[in-house]
Every structure is written in C-alpha cells, then in structure tokens.
## 1
Amino acid sequence: MRNLAIAMSNVTHLQCAACGVQYPAGKLYNLCEKCGKPLLVHYDLERASRTLTRESLKSRVSSMWRYREVMPVSSDADIVTLGEGWTPLLRADRLGRVLGMNQLYIKDESLNPTQSFKARGMSAAVSMAKELGVQKVAAPSAGNAAGALAAYAARAGMEAHLFMPRDTPRANVVECIELGAHVTLMDGLITDCGAEVARRKDAEGWFDVSTLKEPYRVEGKKTLGYELAEAFGWSLPDVIIYPTGGGTGLIGMWKAFDEMEQMGWIGSDRPRMVTVQSEGCAPIVTAFEKGERFADMFSNAATVASGLRVPKAIGDFLILDAIRASGGSAVAVSDKALLAAVKEIGSLEGVFVAPEGGACLPALRKLIEREEVQLDERVVLFNTGAGVKYVEAFEQD
Ligand SMILES: *Cc1c(COP(=O)(O)O)cnc(C)c1O
C-alpha cells in the first residue's frame, strides 16, 4: 500500500532475538511466529551513517526524532510526536556529596510528554502503527504506558483500549480518560491485563502494543542510549542504574550502544548495566542471583512502584544477557527505602522523582557497600517518571 515510502527507511529486516528467524520490514508484527519471543529491528547502519553523523546532530530537532535514520518509520508524515526525548541529564552534585561521589547524574525522564519515558516507546510504536494502517490499539499497563498510549493514539486519531490493574495510581487512570481512551480496570496484575488484551484483540480488531510483544516501542526507548552518549560527548558512563519492569529501556540502550559502535561513534566499552527492582516484585533479580537466563513468574507481586510490578517479563533473557555481558548487576530494594529516597532526592536535587526512580538510590548505596561501584565512577540514575502521578503512595506514608 505504501511501498514507495518504505524505501526511505533504513530498516533491513526484523529478527527474532531468541531463534534468529528473520521477517521482512514494513509490516505489523507481534511476537516471533516460530518461538513466541520478541522481534528486534535491524538497520542498514552503513547507509544510516551517511547522513546521520555526530556532526549533523548539532542542527537537529530537540526530540528523540533527531536520530531519524535509526528509527523505523519510513515517511516523516507518519511520525506522531509530542516532543518526546532529549530530556536533561542533570548533575546530582548535592546528592553525590552525601554519597561521597563526584560524577553522579540523573537522567530526568519526567520531562517527557505524559511525564514518563513511556512516551518514547509509544511515539515510535504509534507512528509505525499509523504508517501501517492501524486504527485501534490496545495495551495492558501498570499506568504510565497507558497514559502515553492514550496521548499518542489521540494525536494519531486512533482508538486506544487500555487495561490496567484496579489499584493503578489514580492520576494514570484519570489521564487516560481525559485523553479520550477506553479504560478497563481489572482485578489482577499487568499480566492478567495482558491476557485480556490477547483474548479479545482479534475479535475487536485491536493491534496489541504490549511491551516487547510489539517491536517498535524498544526503538523509541533505545534513544535513551543515543542521548546519553551524545550528552557525555560520545563516551558512556561507567554505570547505569535502571528501574526495571519489562526492561524495554535497558534492552533498548544496549541495542543503541551496539548500533553506535557499528557506526563508529563509540568504542567497545560498555557501562555496567544495573537492574533495580522492588523486593515486592523482583523476578529479574531472582533469576540473576540464581544464574538463570529466564525468569520465573514472581508470585504475589506487590509494590508502590507500579512500573516495576511486572511479575513476568517477556524480554527477561534480553535483560539478563545485557546485565551479564556488561558486568553489571541486579538489586532489589524495599518499598520503604525507595519511598524514602524520593524525598531524599527531591530535597537535595529539586526533582520529584517517581518511586521507580527513587529505587535507584538505595540500589546505588547497596552497590557502593558491596564495592561493586567505586565512588569516583560516573554513574547515571534513571528517573523514569514523575512523583506527582503517585500522590497516593506518598500519602500512605
Ligand atoms: C514502565 C516504567 C518502568 C519500567 O520500564 P521498563 O522499560 O518496562 O522496564 C519504570 N519506571 C516507570 C515510571 C515506568 O512507568
């Protein structure tokens, strides 16, 4: 239908991250038809790098679409944007001093449209859905993904059908309704919501944009990796601490580092990737400690950091592979500690972080204690969302 436009994308094919089966570009996909694992997008990076140079970025748009040539959309007219990405990388000197560190940073993703980094993934996914003719999208969400999908679907003129646990933070639910989405609250966890989408999508004509069941969200999230490298003058930090639910951001950054190396922008050094989860839902930490490549379902998952309440991540092996290949680690922290950290970061740095972002601080303290992080290293904490969306969590305190 839109074959002319497709010629403008640098995507060569999609490939299953587990079994390696290849799929042609320019089509809608969910999981690998052979093995049920996530597909990843591959590019002709030599071609991309002819126009996408480090120099060229100086005059580019201040959003994640500055990395246009390594994004999957063919036609510029199909890009659905609210100005996502290109968020501040803040020095955290006052917090650093408390810890005895002098190169501590916060990547503040709360400045994205809909106040979380889910905007990056949904901008990419909805743009591709638009390009490929989708009219109705659906997703399960712990909260922020739903808000982001509601916003981008509205902007694209699509219907959004969102399924969230009943105890999702109220702000997320109100936001989705005001953005015109169809919202269903369910008794259960995000995995139950995902099963509901899967059960109904064919009959309803919905395209399922669940994390990693859809290959383009990770392409949006990978821009986190490009932005970090660009902000640090084409070097990478020593350590990245990432609050992990489905793991899209971590998987995306890991992919971005490889792409940048292939384009000759960075060398082979990688940051140590650290997953932080809540003790109330820590499937990746458990698998990491047991030396396993796939994570078991974490039973009775419960945490105020709703973005981390993912008891089973479909990309578990990609997260665990990246952590191990990087020499990184996986750490669980208590809800009490992550909530206390929100106040500590807020009062020292002026950033009202989401509970998920707060989790990075007690994780860093544990790593320092275990001597897995040295005080003079360059460390980035990810604040993935906005504290203001979680007022109930702080009022309970
Ligand atoms: C979704 C979410 C996360 C987890 O992100 P993944 O890429 O799924 O690991 C962390 N923090 C916040 C605020 C989120 O909304």
## 2
Amino acid sequence: MSENPLPIPGAENPEKLTGLKKGDIKKAAAGIPAVVSALEMAIGEAGFQRGMKALFNLNKKGGFDCPSCAWPDPDDERSGIAEYCENGARAVAEEATAKKLTPDFFSENSVQELGLLSDYEIGGKGRIAQPMFLPAGGTHYQPITWEAAFDKIGTELNRLGSPHEAVFYTSGRTSNEAAFLYQLFVREFGTNNLPDCSNMCHESSGTALGESLGIGKGSVTLNDFYQAEVIMILGQNPGTNHPRMLTALQKAKANGATIISINPLPETGLMGFNNPQTVAGVLGYKPALTDIFLPVKINGDMALLKAIELLLLQEEEKHPGTVFDQKFIAGNTQGYTDFIQDLRPYDAGQLAAQAGVPYAQVQEVARVLAGKTKIIACWAMGLTQHKNAVATIKEIVNLLLLKGSIGKPGAGTCPVRGHSNVQGDRTMGIFERPTDKLLDAIEKNFHFAPPREHGYDVVECIKAMHAGEAKVFFAMGGNFLSATPDTRFTAEALQKCRLTVHVSTKLNRSHLVHGEEALILPCLGRSDQDMRDGENRFVSCENSMGVVQLSRGVLEPVSEHLLSEPEIVCRLAQATLGTRSKVYWDRYAADYDLIRSDIERTIPGFADYNERVRQPGGFYLPNCNRAGNFDTPSRKAHFHIDSPEMPVLRADELMMMTIRSHDQFNTTVYGLNDRYRGIYNERRVILMNKKDIRDRGLQNGDLVDLHNHHGGVERVAHKFVVVEYPIPEQCTATYFPETNVLVPITSVAEKSNTPTSKMVILTVKRHEEF
Ligand SMILES: Nc1nc2c(c(=O)[nH]1)N[C@H]1C(S)=C(S)[C@@H](COP(=O)(O)OP(=O)(O)OC[C@H]3O[C@@H](n4cnc5c(=O)[nH]c(N)nc54)[C@H](O)[C@@H]3O)O[C@H]1N2
Ligand SMILES: Nc1nc2c(c(=O)[nH]1)N[C@H]1C(S)=C(S)[C@@H](COP(=O)(O)OP(=O)(O)OC[C@H]3O[C@@H](n4cnc5c(=O)[nH]c(N)nc54)[C@H](O)[C@@H]3O)O[C@H]1N2
Ligand SMILES: [Mo]
C-alpha cells in the first residue's frame, strides 16, 4: 500500500483538541436564542452601527442579497422587515467585520506561522485590506500595487505554453455581472478551464435533472410550497444551512402539507421549528415539522425510493388509475414500461432493510403518497456527494413522474442550492463544459472564437496541477485547498504551480499553501458599497428558484484599496490580453448596465435585464419544466433504470459523511459549537452509533484516528473524539474541512465527477500518543 503524501505545513487544521462539552440534541430550531445569537455576532464583529445597518438591509428589497445561502425570499410579503436568519446574520457579520489585515499584520506573521492556526482563528483575523504578494522563496506576504499585481498575472499567463495550462476557479458568491465577464475573459484568453464550487456541490443534480427533465435546475417556486400536499426532504439540514426554508415549511404545514424527512440524522430543524417572526415562535411554541422521519442509512436513498415506488406500483395494479398519473405518463414521459418491468421483481421488504428503514414506515409513506398528486422533493448534499448520486436523483424524478408531480402548482423538483449565486454563475457560463449555443452566442457578439474543447472541472484540475500540466491557478473567491478532497494531494498540486492567485474578502488556508509565487487580491463583499462617481452601484444574483434580483451593499468598505469583482476581471483582462482583446473592458468597469446589456444579448431569459432587475423583487428566469415542457432531445421526461446497490462494508468498516456544523459556512468557521446537535467547543468529533462504539471496544469520549484506504493509498486524520449519537449502524459523521484529508480524490460520482464527500469508508483505531 502506498503512503499518503506527507503533511504539508499549514495545509490542514492543527490536530489540537479544544475541549468537547456535550449538551442535549435540541428539539427545535431557531426561536429567540437564534436571533439573539445572530445580533450578538453582528454587533460584536462589526460594531453596533455597522451591524444594525447591515442586518436592516439584508434581503430587503433594494438591499443586498444574503451571502449565506440561495434560498429565495418571499415574492410579495417582504417590504417591512428584512428577511434573514441567524446564519445569514453570521455570514454578514463575518464579512462586515471592522477588523482588517494591514501590511503590518503580514510582516509580523509569516505564512508558516499563520498556517499553524485553526480555520476558526484564521477567519477571525479580519478583512484583507490591500493586494498582497508572496515572492518566490518568500516567508511573508508583502504589499503590492494593483497595477503590479495585474502585470504579474498577465505576464505569467502569457508565458504559458498554452492557455490550457491555466485554471480559473469560481466560488458561488460571485455576482452575475462578475461571472459573465470572468468567463468571457477566460474564453477570450483561450480555455474552458472554469472549474467551480458547483462541481463539488449540486453538479449531480444538474446532470440528473438535465438528462431526465431537460433542465438542470429545480422546477418549483416558493409559492408551490404553500400549495403542496407532501414535501419530501432528502439529505438536507435546513435548520442550519437554509434556515429561511423552515418558514416556508411551517407555512406549508399550516396549509395541510405532510412533511417527510429522509436523513441518517434526526436534524433539529426538521424535527421542530420556532419561528422567530411569529408570536407563537416568540412564546416558544414548538410545532413539530416532520410528520414522518425515515432514518435511512448513508446512501440507502435509492433502495428506499424504489421500495416506495414498488409499494405504489402494487397499489396501482390493484386499483388501476388511482395511484399513478397515467395520463401524464402517457403524454409526457418515455421509458415507463421498461421502468415498471425492472421494478416489479424487487422485494419492498428487502429494499427497506437495505435502506435501514423499518418496513412499516416505508408502507406509511407509500400510503401517504398514494392518494396525493402535489408532491415536492427537496434535496441537497446528502444526495449529491455519492458515487451513484446522479442515479439517485433520477430515482426521485422517477417517483415524481409516476405521480405526475412535475409542471403543476404545488409539485416538482427542488434541489436546494448552497452558495447564494452558484446557480447564477452557471447561468452566466461558468462551466468547463459549455454548450455550443453559449459559445456560438459569444462568438457572434464578441467577435472572437472561443475554444470549443472542454476544460477541467475541480477534480480534473487538481490532477492536472499535480501532474504539472496546469501551472497558474486563479480563484475568484472560495477556499480551494480546504473545500476540495484529499487535502495533502491538493496541497501538493497547488505547490507545484508557478503562480496561485486568490480574489478574496478574507484570509484563508488557500493563501497559505501556495505556488512558487502567490497573490491575494482583496475585493468588495456583498454588504460593501460599490461607489463610482458618487453612485452606489448594484450587481445581481439568481437564487435557488431562478429569481434574478439586484444586490446593493450598504456598508463603507474597510479599506480604500478594495476593488469590485467586475473591475478586477476587467483589469485582469486588459493586463493579459492588451490590444489583442475584442472586448471593451474599460467600459464595463465604468458601467455595469453595459455588462447587463451584453448578458441580455448572450444568455437566454434576460430580456430587458436592466429594467426588470430594477423592479422590486426582480424577475423569474424561464423554466421549461415549470411550463410543463421537457427540453430533452425527445421532448419527453425520461424514466431512468438503475440498480440500488450499495457498497458492502466489512464488519470493521464504517461509512462516513462529512457535514457542516451549525457554526460554519463551508470552510469559514464562525465558532466551535454545533448547538442543535448538542456538541460544544469541539470540531474534531466523530458521531457514532452506540453499537459501533461498543463493538470496537470504545467508549463515548474516547480519542480515535480515522483511516481510509481507497485505491491502495492510506489516508489518516488523527485525534477525533467519539460521540455517541442516534445515527444508523455503520454510519458516522464528521465535520469538513477537518476530514477532507480522508476524502479520496479518486472517488467521484459517476457522470458528475463530484467528490464522494458523503461516502468515505473508514476504519477507526484508538488514538495512541507517542
Ligand atoms: N449556515 C450555513 N449555511 C450554508 C452552508 C454552510 O456551510 N453554513 N453551506 C451552503 C452550501 S455551499 C451548501 S451546498 C448547502 C449545504 O446544505 P446541506 O446539504 O444541508 O449541508 P450538509 O451539512 O452537507 O448536510 C447534508 C445533510 O444530508 C444528510 N446526509 C448525508 N448523507 C446522506 C445520505 O446518504 N442520505 C440522506 N438521505 N441524507 C444524508 C446529513 O445527515 C445532513 O443532514 O448549505 C448552504 N448554506
Ligand atoms: N468534505 C466535504 N467537502 C466539501 C463539501 C462537503 O459537504 N464535504 N461541500 C462542498 C460544497 S457544497 C461547496 S459549495 C464547496 C465550497 O467551496 P468554496 O466556495 O471554495 O469555499 P468557501 O468556504 O465557501 O469559500 C470561503 C472563502 O471565500 C472568500 N469569499 C467570501 N465572500 C467572497 C466574495 O464576495 N468574493 C470573493 N471573491 N471571495 C469571497 C473568502 O475569502 C472565504 O475565505 O465545498 C465543498 N467541499
Ligand atoms: Mo455548496
């Protein structure tokens, strides 16, 4: 067996424990404590006036779009108070902080010293206040002018043997305007190497929905929630990651919807919810949200869905036409007969056992679904980051198609997006596999020939950098090193680059494990004013339900040296392409309306962009499913056949899902608590079932090391505290990014190439101190 590469200083969080305190798992989410905690955070970080100003304008029409998640705002009822949640307020506080990193900070702290800090400590340092440069062999970042920084990048890019030796990553906070310019620059430079966070996030959803339904986005709107009869929530923890969704669920429930949660963990937000914005919430009244909770094993979803479908089929065959929507199936789908033939021979009891769910509960779900036609299925990372993620999501589509639950009010698909503009970035063309339609439009409008060969996604670009085939890494936001799998391998890959560049708001680990030379380019965040000629300019974003609306920051930037992302792209393009560019970059930088006009000319659905984006609440993009159409080659929705096989674990093996705690936004760690799960002051924990703990001769609170051996490489993460938790047998959970060192770069989802961050096979050994 080959060894895991040696640890690279600064690449991982220190293996240091902070002192676990255990509390009870909370019965209900949100409520007054959440609002208080949010206010404390915002005011503490930003100071009273900045904090209140930011919160008051968060998600308010005409204010700025919450940077925390992509859940939509209500279309109509959003004038008085701002719609936000505890975690949105934290994300804003994190950005609105008045602390800043001056050149003194960097001269006092070497890159190596900073790498010894935890993510929590690094994040707490403050905003980056001016461009910083790390010369070859240097130990400390030093200030650099914007002009010199752009010159350096341009020179390095132009020195490459081919444009394909550069990689341009995007995280999902980048606005439509910046994203459109960025992909335009990258393509004019000559490559489609545009990996993005989506490759690690909802890529599986986009792939599955695109193939089955003809559009890679969800079909429902917020109003559909209020009309739904059944809402299924699979592999998602909205209490922490999309708290405003709980308000919609509560309203749906009040309107009579049945809520079914499918999750290995009894997540607090799903179980109960105190709405801080209603009187009942303030009084601490706890309406239970979930009606049926199915504690599925990790990756048991496809077996479970098939069991449900099979029970429905049996009922339909007893009483034809009463369970399935035969009219919808005949008129809108293809592959039904083959699908049914494949399904019939399964045994529902066996499928339920395979999924780890009591058969009686599966029968109950089938009984509920049998008589209903308005069904919404929501899902997130609990389904997308698995080897068979695309097939599992297609299985959800199968179920909805059987029930005729797509393209009508109160029904449809709802992949709940993560980053606040990750969906918009893809709409703008941030994609390593662009369609010919997009490239044709670019060619026609901008008079250059964009490259046609596909570029690298996240996993491919890491391998290319590791192999020395990609030499310049440029990131528009994000924290590539910590968000990606196989930390040691990725760290080596970044270190092999000639130049690594990060456009960032805050310091993170990706600045500290770098190429031969490195740059940090500080940009304005969502909450910051973007002033030019006395005008506070706005950008726009697309939420999870395809609504495009404007976002205008309100706070005075912490430093005069920050540039907006669109301006950074324009100057980068000018420095790199010079007179060979066909694009008027300086005009874009001066006037964002011109960017939007050119988006309108290039991307479908943006007619009258400048006018409609200024309307309160913005506008909906077209969605074929919503209109009852399927833009597949056959113009029909496709039933998909796959087998519900799951990996067979040896008795000593465990399956690990890497999840988010309540106090983090991806790789940004706000605090050390996971309040709803009753875990305080420690992130190096592994949630395990009682029996699994006992079988290994361990006890609650013991210290263990985690090992993964995928592909014959040994990967180890040391020092995790065992926490007994209600989780199915042979399933475990840990927090990322601490355990990304264990996620094999060679284990990816079929078709979408998403790292299988929720399906890591482990053995656990008692930690021995040497
Ligand atoms: N506060 C906050 N908000 C966020 C984020 C954040 O980090 N913090 N991140 C944003 C981003 S980019 C994203 S993508 C979203 C992520 O939102 P989520 O997808 O909710 O995030 P995870 O923590 O990865 O949670 C995955 C959930 O799936 C469950 N799960 C894991 N494996 C399986 C499985 O095999 N089957 C089933 N049925 N369930 C499973 C886990 O128990 C957990 O409840 O949130 C966004 N919003
Ligand atoms: N093991 C495991 N790994 C995962 C996941 C998982 O569930 N498990 N989830 C995956 C998912 S769903 C995602 S989306 C990725 C996230 O991957 P990324 O998007 O790369 O990571 P983030 O932690 O969201 O990025 C945070 C950094 O973005 C910068 N930033 C914040 N706001 C702005 C801004 O407005 N502009 C710019 N330019 N920079 C900004 C700050 O410097 C901050 O440090 O991680 C993936 N990795
Ligand atoms: Mo995400």
